[in-house]
Amino acid sequence: MHHNPNIWDRPEEYDPYRFSPENSTDRHPYAFLPFSAGPRNCIGQHFAMNELKTAVALILQRFCLTPDDTLPEPVPVHKIVLRADSPGLFLKINPL
Ligand code: HEM
Fold this sequence. Notes:
Largest sheet: 2 strands, antiparallel
Helix content: 10-25%
Organism: Branchiostoma floridae (Florida lancelet)
Shape: globular
Strand content: 15-25%
Structural class: alpha+beta
Keywords: Heme, Iron, Metal-binding, Monooxygenase, Oxidoreductase
GO molecular function: heme binding; iron ion binding; monooxygenase activity; oxidoreductase activity, acting on paired donors, with incorporation or reduction of molecular oxygen
Number of strands: 4
Number of helices: 2
Order of helices and strands: HHEEEE
Bound molecules: protoporphyrin IX containing FE
Region (Disordered): 1-22
Radius of gyration: 16 Å
């Protein structure tokens, strides 16, 4: 659903700026649904988003993350959520 080209411009491209406020104004409210929607949607979504942002901020304050070019590119695979197929997704993590 989050790769639907009718909704997402260049859906296979990693572009965090597609979520910036100015790029999100015309998007349908149900276009991005990682936590589902409706009466049984995820009750932990705000906690999960805050936890995620906190964890990312703490990691980026302390470490430099770069792709590991010595290993194969990650292969996307659908397993309820999108994951990297074996052997996985590798990063080099160096202390700042
Ligand atoms: C990135 C993290 C998370 C994702 C992507 C996620 C996603 C989802 C999705 C897709 C559903 C199904 C909604 C439906 O059936 O329509 C759901 C339900 C639920 N989630 Fe999450 N969730 C996350 C984190 C959390 C956390 C941290 C908690 C609790 C602290 C939580 C508690 C629940 C509960 C209790 C339900 C069932 C709600 C119900 O059936 O009424 N989730 N979640």
